[in-house]
Amino acid sequence: MNMDRIPSETLVCQECGRCTGVCPVARSGLGHSPRKVIRSAGAGGTRSPEFDRALFSCLGCDRCATVCPAGLVISEVIVKLRAEVGSDRGAGTLAHGGLLQSFMRMMATSPDRQRRLDWLDPSLRVSTSGDTILFVGCAPYFDRVFDFPGLRPVETARNAVRLLNRVGIEPILLEDERCCGHDLLWLGDTGNFRLLAERNLAQIAATGAKRLVFSCPECLRTFKLDYQRRFGKSGLELLHISELLVQESSKLDPGALPGRVTFHDPCRLGRHLGIYDPPRELLRAIPGVALIEMNHSRETATCCGGTAWVECGTAVKCLQSARLAEAGATGADRLVTACPKCDIHLRCALCGAGAETAPQIINLIDLLAESLGLSGPGPLPESAVLAHKGGNQDA
Amino acid sequence: MSDSSAVGSCVTFRCKWAREAGAELCAVLDEVRVVCIGRIPAGLIMQAIERGAGRVLVVGCPESDCRHHNGVKLARAQVRVARDLLHLLGLDPDRVQLVAGNESRTARSAAHPGE
Question: What is the topology classification, in CATH, of domain A254-371?
Answer without folding.
Answer: Rossmann fold (3.40.50)
